[in-house]
Design goal:
Elements lengths: L1 H18 L4 E4 L1 H18 L3 E8 L6 E5 L2 E5 L4 E8 L6 E6 L6 H10 L4 E7 L10 E7 L1 E2 L6 E3 L8 E3 L5 H23 L9
């Protein structure tokens, strides 16, 4: 069951970070995120998995064109990327997002991966937790502290007290509906790609 596996993975990652005395001091937000990403990748390699940075994924719902003032945009965007995707010899790949704040598309990407029946792990560091955790997703919170300008972030050694929150089990009906929508969208894109290119019009 993906939701239970997601929680177990969060527990295992927390234990790894605790055992390796993971911490950092005086880093920029970009440096801190990179440090955490590297630590998660090392954890994956110890299990014999292959971590891939910025792995492309797709949203289950097709994008909708929206209008905002003077601009037109697609929501959700056509393309999306996971911070890490962990490929295993057995079982589906693990989706991982690593964020300093709740704002952004992490919750949507992880929700869709969980709906596909894949374990989904959200590593949230530093800030207060406001966003809800989607069904099938486990969130590991790594608290940190920051200085005033110039802003630098520090994280004490991770302990077993680092909070893990789960979004519960993905309802079977929701997962079946998501898989069907995903399949129909792929088939529609394959049919569109197979159509002959329109003739070039010269004006």
């Amino acid at each position: 069951m993906p939701s239970l596996e997601s929680e177990n993975l969060a527990v295992d990652l927390r234990a790894y970070l605790t055992a390796t005395h993971f911490s950092f001091d005086g880093l920029t937000a970009k440096e801190a995120t990179s440090r955490i990403t590297d630590a998660v990748a090392r954890w994956a390699r110890t299990a014999g998995w292959r971590p891939v940075n910025e792995a492309p994924v797709r949203y289950i719902d097709p994008p909708t064109m929206k209008f905002g003032g003077c601009i037109t945009y697609w929501e959700p965007p056509w393309s999306a990327y996971l911070d890490l995707q962990l490929f295993r010899e057995t079982g589906p790949p693990v989706a991982v997002e690593i964020d300093r704040e709740d704002f952004g598309t992490a919750t949507d990407k992880l929700r869709d991966e969980a709906l596909r029946g894949r374990p989904a792990l959200w590593v949230r560091w530093h800030g207060a937790l406001r966003a809800d955790v989607a069904a099938g997703v486990a969130r590991l919170h790594l608290p940190g502290r920051s200085t005033r300008s110039p802003v630098r972030y520090s994280m004490p050694t991770v302990t077993a007290a680092a909070a893990i929150t789960t979004g519960g089990t993905v309802p079977l009906e929701s997962q079946e509906n998501a898989v069907l929508k995903d399949t129909l969208r792929k088939e529609a894109e394959w049919r569109a790609a197979a159509l002959p290119a329109p003739p070039h019009v010269v004006r």
